[in-house]
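Thread: quick sanity check before group meeting

JM: Hey all, I'm pulling together slides for Thursday and realized we never actually wrote out the predicted structure for the chain we discussed last week. Dropping the sequence here so it's in one place. If anyone has concerns about the input, flag it before I start.
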Amino acid sequence: RFAPEHLSIPDAKLLPKVRHAGSVFIGAMSPEAAGDYASGPNHVLPTSGAARLRGGLSAADFVKVISTQQLSAAALKRLSGAITTLARAEGLEAHARSVEVRLG
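JM (edit): ok, ran it. Output follows.
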């Protein structure tokens, strides 16, 4: 398995076969230097095979994501067995009790 920082391919027809790459340069007129300095992407790319996990730095890296959850009493009851079992397996008794107290 390859996950290069930079990948040059001769034709866009090969792009669907690319599974991992920090940045792909398509065609003879698309040198790596263009991507590094001027054509849009930037030079902050994953190295050492990290392209298997992610692409290059983008605006998305500066977006703060906050996950939210809002359960009904019925939903908490349906999930309570899994929650309390996992909490106790991790030694987090207070987490398990926080569910049990809410459900009475």
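AS: nice. The chain has two domains: 6-62, 73-103. Residues 6-62 form one domain.
JM: adding both to the slides.
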